[in-house]
Write a structure and sequence with these properties.
- The protein has about 650 residues and is mainly beta.
- Among the domains are: about 100 residues, no CATH class; about 110 residues, no CATH class; about 110 residues, Cupredoxins -  blue copper proteins (Immunoglobulin-like, Sandwich).
- Helix content is about 10%, strand content about 40%.
- The strands form ten sheets. The chain has a six-stranded mixed beta sheet with strand order 8-9-10-11-16-15, with helices on one face. Strands 31, 32, 33, 35 and 38 form a five-stranded mixed beta sheet that branches. Strands 3-2-1-30 form a four-stranded antiparallel beta sheet, with no helix packed on it.
- A hairpin with a 6-residue loop joins strand 28 and strand 29.
- Helix 1 packs across helix 2.
- The longest helix has 17 residues.
- It is globular and about 80 Å long.
- It starts with 8 loop residues before the first helix and ends with a strand.
- The structure holds [4Cu:2S] cluster and dinuclear copper ion.
- The site of dinuclear copper ion has 8 residues, from loops.
Length: about 650
């Protein structure tokens, strides 16, 4: 484009907002946009004075959040000092002391998970999942390469929702499951080793956004397909969006196999499970089934879906499915015969407006569905779901919490905390009061806390278990703007620690924590529930443990060698080894140390190799020695006073 056509960015934004305003002005308040044979649900919202300005702000934020984002609410948070670490209740953990909680952060499109101590907010480690990582060699060693290749062979992922495995509704500390929104995958992380041990590339799904475990005993890992696509996506119906479909999936937590899928109308967003193993509640937007933002935000309501898990299992057992790419796909669309009887497999619950999150409260009574483009949170009575014929009768409350509600968390003392993206605030409200209040009432609101800026997820201690611990919550803000030293056009996110204590008006902002792009969600477990191993147990992996006496070179073929060597402070098992130009070299290394934290690294720079070998672990890399010469091998982890001397040489003799 020629430079004189360059437009003022503010004009572009303004035009965009005007367009959304026009679209939203056309939205009818009544349910005329539903077809005749659909149940007409009256959306009576007494006291809900939602003006067009609210809609416009919300609509604009949905598409261009940076433009409006929270500029009007920069009046320092209650109790916060506006600086890095606050003056509130002590969150600092003294040198040498441990945090009380583990926090597991999704890393968004970095593809990794991050482990953070709570309340100190100190980052403890990172766990590569869908990414490769040169610090550990994840994605470079044979085993991790194979894991990523069999898991779809992509170089990146976008993880949003970390979930801890449960037994009896409580975290059992065994596994963490996380979705890949980008490539429709679910990964499992072993929490005794803090490492990824399985990745499933789920067939038929292009995006898996919502992800949860089926409470109370992790029977399934459940995932929501956000992007609608042809089924199967093999070139049919490419230009016929009406024929696209969105899927809900159940994965076996042990085998990590895809067990079944349910196709639905509209697209799915976030999902959470009830506490009794029957219901999974999924939020949704785009009931319009449009392919553009204007189309997707047209309707006044979208259908939240309640999946009746035993009813779906029954349909699968009865053979009521179509098999697509090896997976039984059950029809859960509104028209499906499986939804016509008195026990539909999916209940559709009209909810305002492009609702974003679903979080089920600790006692399992209610699912809390944040309105995103509506300033309300819809509370769905989960126990009533199975009884009412019109699922909208299961709506138990709908308080008006503020603009841009995205996610809700719980303290176990009867309070809910909802993040408000547009208002840049957290609203604390009383759950029981919201049931008793009229729809649209602000009465249940206890207090609001400014956050900086534009929060997405919000998590309190153990809030996704049946027994939350309260005390602290973390608000994951998308923008930090002026909160940190400027680091160029891209600033970090800002995860803020808020003390919530026990009392009524008790929220206090105590710490800012910059985060690299882009955490979406986190989950916290008390340290007593995690039992991290100190060294590897060779029985837990398939590689053959190398003893000190085994170090050596074995010719396995005319053009292949197997090099075995141990590592220990401060030497490799072989001071040097010789291979021939063109050899395929399989290099297996065992770290025979039995002391936690004594890790050795094996770097062969010109061959693009570097990987870590933790104590008692064994790792293999395979490469072709195609350049003759001398190649120093060095240890990349500072392991002893003689770490620099910990070297070996690979001699590649010319052919
Ligand atoms: S989503 Cu990102 S703020 Cu993927 Cu859970 Cu709501
Ligand atoms: Cu081993 Cu440094």
């Amino acid at each position: 484009m020629s430079t004189d056509e360059r437009r003022d960015p503010n004009d572009v934004i303004e035009e965009y907002e005007q367009r959304l305003d026009d679209v939203l002005a056309e939205v009818e308040p009544a349910p005329d946009d539903r077809t005749a044979d659909e149940p007409v649900v009256s959306l009576d919202l007494p006291g809900l004075s939602l003006n067009r300005r609210d809609f416009m702000k919300a609509g604009a934020a949905a598409g261009a959040m940076g433009a409006l984002a929270g500029c009007s609410n920069i009046t320092g948070g209650g109790g916060g000092d506006g600086g890095a670490s606050g003056s509130g209740p002590g969150h600092k953990v003294a040198p040498g002391e441990h945090d009380e909680y583990y926090g597991f952060w999704s890393g968004g499109h970095s593809g990794e998970l991050r482990v953070v101590g709570i309340p100190s907010m100190r980052e403890l480690t990172r766990i590569p999942v869908f990414n490769t990582d040169c610090a550990t060699g994840y994605g470079y060693t044979d085993g991790s390469k194979e894991l990523l290749e069999e898991g779809g062979d992509y170089t990146w992922g976008d993880n949003h929702h970390p979930n801890l495995s449960e037994t009896d509704g409580d975290y059992d500390g065994e596994f963490l499951f996380v979705n890949d929104k980008a490539n429709g995958r679910i990964a499992r992380v072993n929490l005794t080793y803090f490492e990824t041990d399985a990745i499933t590339d789920v067939p038929n799904m292009q995006a898996i956004h919502g992800c949860c475990v089926l409470s109370p005993d992790t029977k399934y890992v459940l995932g929501n397909g956000e992007f609608r696509a042809p089924l199967p996506n093999d070139g049919r119906d490419v230009d016929n969006p009406d024929a696209y479909t969105s899927l809900f999936v159940a994965v076996d937590p042990e085998s990590m196999e895809t067990l079944w899928q349910v196709k639905v109308d509209g697209n799915l967003d976030i999902v959470d499970s009830g506490k009794e193993g029957r219901w999974a509640i999924a939020s949704a937007y785009n009931s319009e089934e449009a392919t553009s933002i204007t189309g997707m935000t047209k309707n006044d309501r979208d259908d939240v879906k309640a999946f009746d898990i035993p009813a779906i299992e029954q349909a699968v057992e009865n053979g009521d499915y179509e098999e697509v790419n090896g997976v039984p796909v059950v029809d859960g669309t509104k028209e499906s015969s499986l939804n016509q009887g008195d026990r539909p497999i999916v209940k559709y619950i009209p909810t305002p407006k492009s609702p974003h999150c679903v979080e089920v409260g600790p006692n399992g009574d209610y699912a809390f569905i944040a309105g995103k483009l509506s300033p309300t949170v819809t509370m769905l009575d989960i126990n009533a779901l199975s009884e009412v014929s019109d699922p909208s009768e299961a709506v138990a409350g709908r308080p008006r919490v503020g603009l841009g509600p995205l996610h809700t968390t719980f303290d176990g003392n009867g309070h809910a905390y909802t993040s408000l993206f547009i208002d840049s605030q957290v609203a604390k409200w009383d759950i029981q009061a919201a049931v008793e209040a009229e729809t649209g009432s602000e009465d249940p609101i206890i207090e609001k806390q400014d956050v900086h800026y534009n929060p997405g997820h919000i998590q309190a201690l153990e809030a996704m278990s049946t027994d939350p611990d309260g005390e602290w919550l973390v608000c994951l803000n998308k923008l930090s703007k002026d909160r940190f030293l400027p680091v160029g056009p891209t600033m970090p996110d800002n995860d803020q620690l808020i003390h919530i204590g026990q009392g009524e008006k008790s929220m206090e902002l105590v710490a800012d924590h910059p985060a690299y792009p882009e955490p979406h969600d986190c989950v916290f477990a008390h340290r007593d529930k995690i039992d991290a191993k100190k060294v590897y147990d060779p029985a837990d992996y398939e590689e053959t443990y190398i003893e000190e006496a085994d170090s050596g070179v074995e010719r396995t073929g005319e053009n292949s060698v197997h090099v075995k060597m141990i590592t220990k402070r401060s030497e490799f098992g072989l001071p040097d080894f010789t291979v021939q130009e063109g050899d395929e070299v399989t290099l297996t290394t065992t770290n025979i140390e039995s002391v936690q934290d004594i890790v050795h690294g094996v770097a062969i720079p010109q061959y693009d190799i570097n990987y870590a070998v933790p104590p008692q672990d064994t790792e293999t890399v395979t490469f072709t020695a195609d350049e003759p010469g001398v190649y120093w091998i060095y240890c990349t982890f500072f392991c002893s006073a003689l770490h620099l001397e910990m070297r070996s040489r690979m001699l590649v003799e010319p052919a």
